[in-house]
Amino acid sequence: MRLEPVADASPSRLVGYPALALAATLAVTASLVMIAGADPLAVFGQVIKGAAGSQFALLETLTRATPLIFTGLAIAVAFRARLWNIGAEAQLYMGAVATVLLGTGALPLPAPILIPILMAAAMLAGALLLLGPALMKMRFGVDEVVTTLLLNFIVLLFVSYLLEGPLKDPMGMGWPQSPRVIAEAQLPRLIQGKRLHFGFVLAIASAVIVWFIMAKTTLGYRMRAVGHNAQAARFAGIPVNRVLAMTALLSGGLAALGGFSEVAGLKGNLTLDLSAGYGMTGIVVAMLALLNPLGVVVSAIFVAGIFVGADAMSRSAGVPSYIADVMVATALLTMVAAIMLTRHRIRWR
Amino acid sequence: MGRQGKDEAGPVLRLSDITKRFGALAANEAISFDLAEGEVIALLGENGAGKTTLMNILFGHYVADSGEVEAFGRKLPPGDPKAALSAGIGMVHQHFTLAEQMSVLDNIMLGTEPLLAFRSARDAAAEKLARLSAESGLAVDPAAKVSALTVGERQRVEILKALYRDARILILDEPTAVLTPTEAQSLFSTLRRLAERGLSVIFISHKLHEVIAAASRVIVLRGGRVVGERRIEETSAAELASLMVGADVPQPALKPAAPGRNMLTLEHVTAQGPGGRIRVEHISLSLHAGEITGMAGVSGNGQSVIAGLIEGMITPEQGRILIDGAPVTRWTPKAALASGIARIPEDRHATGMIADMNVTENVISERHDEARFSRSGLINWRAARDFALKLISAYDVKVPAPETRVRLLSGGNMQKLILGRALDGAPQVIIANQPTRGLDVGAVAYVQQRLAEARDRGAAILLISEDLDEVLSLSDRVIVMSGGRLSRPMARSDVSIADVAALMAGQGFEARGLERNADAA
What we know:
The structure holds two protein chains of two kinds.
Chain A: E1 2-5, H1 11-35, H2 40-52, H3 55-80, H4 88-103, H5 111-140, H6 144-164, H7 199-216, H8 218-228, H9 230-235, H10 240-267, H11 278-288, H12 293-317, H13 323-343, E2 344-347
Antiparallel strand pairs in A: 1-2
Helix pairs in contact in A: 1-2, 1-13, 2-3, 2-12, 3-7, 3-10, 3-11, 3-12, 4-5, 4-6, 4-10, 4-11, 5-10, 7-8, 7-10, 7-12, 8-10, 11-12, 12-13
Chain B: E1 13-22, E2 25-35, E3 40-44, H1 51-58, E4 66-71, E5 74-75, H2 81-86, E6 89-92, H3 104-109, H4 119-136, H5 151-164, E7 169-173, H6 181-196, E8 200-205, H7 208-214, E9 217-222, E10 225-231, H8 237-245, E11 262-272, E12 279-288, E13 291-296, H9 303-311, E14 318-323, E15 326-327, H10 333-338, E16 341-344, H11 348-352, H12 359-363, E17 374-375, E18 378-379, H13 381-394, H14 411-423, E19 429-433, H15 441-456, E20 460-464, H16 468-474, E21 477-482, E22 485-486, E23 490-491, H17 497-504
Helix pairs in contact in B: 14-15
């Protein structure tokens, strides 16, 4: 068996293979569901219902998608320039820390002033956190995969220290949690009484802005050039290191906005379970979107939908919600295969 | 079409009616020929004539739509490189397939040794390699890491790799593209020697003189079809050239030079090449307006450092670079561009173009922050696309649209694009490093013609080439680089090939009093 490139991918390829990928995902998960002793059709039905079957379900999916859009964008931006940021989780937490530091009363300002300041502070914290590994990569050739990955643990332990010490809520009955941010620091809910908050709007706006940067600006052009061929970019006079530094700042800042949005929009305070692995899931989201910033919105909602839907399903069908992880992982693998197949033809001998 | 292989032994290889289409494009159309034992045949044709596709079918990388391949009387299963390998077919690709971080010996053994090998297997391999190396005249250091080798040395490793696997039919795809004339000559005598011992060779080329020098029979391809088959003694370069392009080949027209002032000077420059392998010390060199300075030399003797210095990729450790008489300060690729230096880099895939970006994105890479392409950080894609369209038509680039990814372009079209990008805006200094490497006859003539035109309008040009014919036919003066040293510039009329060949081999620098190089006048 071998692969031959095809010059022009026909529309039937472009639609057919992703459809096949979806079918393969369903087939794999269906067989697992059957092993668990449940009816696959019923389970899928409940996943879909749980993800989008009601206003509550839909809003819950969008709420869950919000941090994934931010981390997905952070990864998409970094990977596009071949800066392998595996530390979106850490940057998200640093954004949350900055939000809590300044948002719990340190700055008694009205919301229209305070919220932009908090966003800027969060972005700065995340940006600087990624700038370090980026500089070490440029100066000493230290692999950023290792440094950003390890920073996740360092930052999580740092947050744990903060929550047991300086940032501990005196009214928290001993729980490791920070005080709540003041009312002026909170993002408004989009619908009264529901959990979906203004952070979702910020996430969509960020996706549009990132798309604009990548497609229309010299910075985005340079980032793509550096990512595709750093040597040719340098030859063409593009300051590769400066571009990588800018990429790090942008990527870290985006992930940190996710932390800001979770604290200021949803949770109100910082705890150690602020992120349900959003940094790592952001990698899946970005890859599924082929690193396209607008695609990140779609894939974040898709991934969030599976998680939310599977949660609901597991409550009623008795199939563990881990099936969501399997579905997302299988979807990623089959989509990667499908994307390759749209561009290549298989020859069986 | 005369079949040569119908002698008593029968052909070692027979291709019958091979047809291969990619969409609407017929890459190969009903191609048939035989190869006899101990025969060297050349597959001649321009880029895109279907040579490489044909060899990929033969080697099992592609599956033909119809037709079959027979080796030593047995039909080869289509699409199975392993079967081709075990039938004794070895292939040396134009783009090398070596593991850069491994040693030469490891590369050669790769895939041949069992999973758990003893030390003695390695020693035996080293012995076999040494023997092959001595027999074939292909000298390499078995312990050297491939990443530290020059392109020329890497190719030797590739050929040895095929010989190591006991290939009885050797296919070479553009083998001389990276070799010096002397190395090419020695490759040809190697091939002849191996052929006398019974090795059959197919070599793919678009260079007439080497086809004539090396092959006993030539098969000419054009547009995927065999348009001629000649025994070498029955044909001429002119006939082959016209068969190949289907028309007469243009030659670059050279007017007498009118050298003007010093446009670029390297003054006692000491610098280190990337990776620190090659070092040049106290080099001085001047480029004059309206003059082509040709730099001959074997690959890996410091030309890349000189090119890097002029391109802005390498900063001098000592010495100065002067542009139009003024010394430069911070020397970067950007500074070189701002100084009006047009650059045609040695490796168009790795340095010249960004293969996964499209034509428009590539043509503006050096100028994307100029006011005509971007304002306050926003790229004007319409202007960029217009520029791409302009270059495509002005430089005769064959590409469906400016949105086409550069990866899909042929080498010749990619080089035309680089040429257009470099020469647009009438640059005063041009550094052209191996500008015609790997191009077909038509594209070579085109590139050379454009360089000659640039000279005639007053540009100072440094032409670095391993193709001695090219240096001698295009240059107004010739310098030779060997072992990091630069010879005194010689006027073209004073140059003899023997002198240049001796200098290229590193002889004659001291004897002529040319220790390093004197000031280039």
